[in-house]
Amino acid sequence: MYIVKKKTENIKTGSVCYFHQLVESYKTGTGESKKRVVLHLGFLDLPEDKIKILGKMIELRIHGKKETVKYPKLEKIADEALIKYRDKQKIEAKKDQEAAIAQYVEIDLKSTNQAHYRSAGCEIVCEHLWRQLHFSAILRECKFNRKEIDLAKVIIFGRLIAPGSELHTIRWFFNQSSLLETLSSDLKNTGKDAFYEISDMLYANKYKIERLLREKTKQLFPYSDTIYLYDLTNTYFEGRKLNSELCRRGKSKEKRTDCPLVTLALVVDQNGFPIHSRIYRGNQSEPLTMKDMITQLYDSEEDYLVYLEKPAIAMDRGIATKENLTYLKQNNYSYFIIERRNVTNHYKEEFSDIQETGIAYKTRSKQTIYLKRLEEENCTRVLVYSPRKMKKESAMTGRKEERFLEDVSRLAISIGKGTLKDEKKIHQRIGRIMERYGAIASLYDIKLIKGTKIDGNISELLLEKRYKPVINKKKDLPGCYVIETDRRDITTEKIWEFYMTLHEVESAFRAIKTDLGTRPIYHQLDSRIESHLFVSILSYTIMRSILFTLQEKGNYNASWKTIRQKLSNHMRSTTVQTSKSGDIFKTRVTGIPEKSAQDIYDLLNIIIKSNRKIKKIPLQK
Length: 621
Hints:
Elements (H helix, E strand, L loop, with lengths): L1 E8 L6 E12 L5 E10 L5 H15 L9 H29 L6 E13 L1 H12 L2 H7 L4 H16 L4 H10 L3 H4 L9 H13 L1 H15 L6 E10 L24 E9 L4 E8 L8 H8 L3 H4 L7 E5 L5 H9 L4 E4 L9 H5 L1 H4 L1 E4 L5 E8 L4 E6 L1 H31 L5 H19 L2 E6 L10 E6 L14 E6 L6 H24 L10 H29 L5 H8 L3 E9 L4 E7 L4 H9 L9 E5 L4
Parallel strand pairs: 5-8, 8-9
Antiparallel strand pairs: 1-2, 2-3, 4-16, 5-6, 6-7, 9-15, 10-11, 11-12, 12-15, 13-14, 16-17, 17-18
């Protein structure tokens, strides 16, 4: 506590008066430092050094402590201030006591009704993690004011709670969510342009926000950085995007070759927390992005001080070109490569007896897998056989083959009936089927047998199964895959565990696209496209923090979609009742959560407050 000098000025007379206040600093729930007035002391005719001593004396008296040094001239003032402080405390306590006293009013139960429902559950959880991650403080460092911070919260929460476009988020905020009631700024009359512009502001501060957010996640979830996972995905757009530099035609991960695409590159740690992201054109070559992304992780010497040892980089084989591996080695990065292509055929002999000669390893899900380590000239390779994966892949291959045969059969029927007559169109249909089913289709030959033509019809379509070897025989070794690394100092089991972490980046992409409703994108400007995707990254950081906390504290492995559903029934509403005297009472309150929602709150250490507000409307006479 300390004493400050204030002044007031009479606008009419121009006279100035001075007075002193005892103030103290405190931190809000968001970590923001603020000041509050403890006591009004009036004007103190004392030198500056004596006022500082007096402030310390009053603080010691308030906390029941004694001074080590006596100041007789100041003791009387300090004693009077203490009496004044205690009187103020008594008045405030009385007010609190009166507020806590139950209000009994005779109510007509038949008049009871509910109104103005708004969702509260997901908002409460998101607000809790927003505070723990010090999001408001991060945005203040980026020069956001209070209203801009609240607008950013709406956009980020909206992507988490009601996934969709920015326009969808705005409608959710005003018509469905209780978030409007909890913000420090009044956004009731805010136009839609402000919500779009705040996304642009977030992206303009992208690098700084990512760095500060990374520091906060490290503080909140302390762990060592041992491996970074790098991958790319693309998402599609509605519209032609003729003037866009980002949107390009390419191979769509979602099979939407009819739409322009944009590529999102993402680096996450072994626990799935985002570290850095970058947006590329839709036809971007994947291998060319790795050096760019790694360089941006360490674009200043200070960033190197954060890590005592550079983490290993895990990536898909499609990114791990010879040039990229050389770059990693030259810059002292180790690597893990996940072999997605069919390289397993090179190790047929080793896989044939892996159950007898390999290491049997039990996973966390209590599934047994078999590992075999091969030390080669420049790298270590671990062969992995999973019986469970084998059954799954065999079943998938079987179903895919069945669908292939069904499509060929339907085509043959169309030809036989004469529905499809044009030979050129038939060959086009055959080509589409072969392209759709890839490796499965390569096991078969489809031939047109030309017989007697009646009205231009071809008489027969012949399907023959090949018995000669084909290039991709994924059916031969289902459940088998290969992991490559340059690390020779870690165990075989640890190498496999590092492989399993790659699922984190795949989960991140899946969550960003599906759980957070990032696709499709309707924006026309490239800047808005980048902003839209970056908001999804920020929302994913909060989502991952929620899921990670639940998993660590209670082994709670539900998806965000499931959690969102369980919290969706927790509402804030207004109870309307009429008293015997005819007065109407409107009680705005956050309801009591159901058990499924309360379990989530308990794991996150969230205490639900009713935030009750009572409004009395007297009977009009």
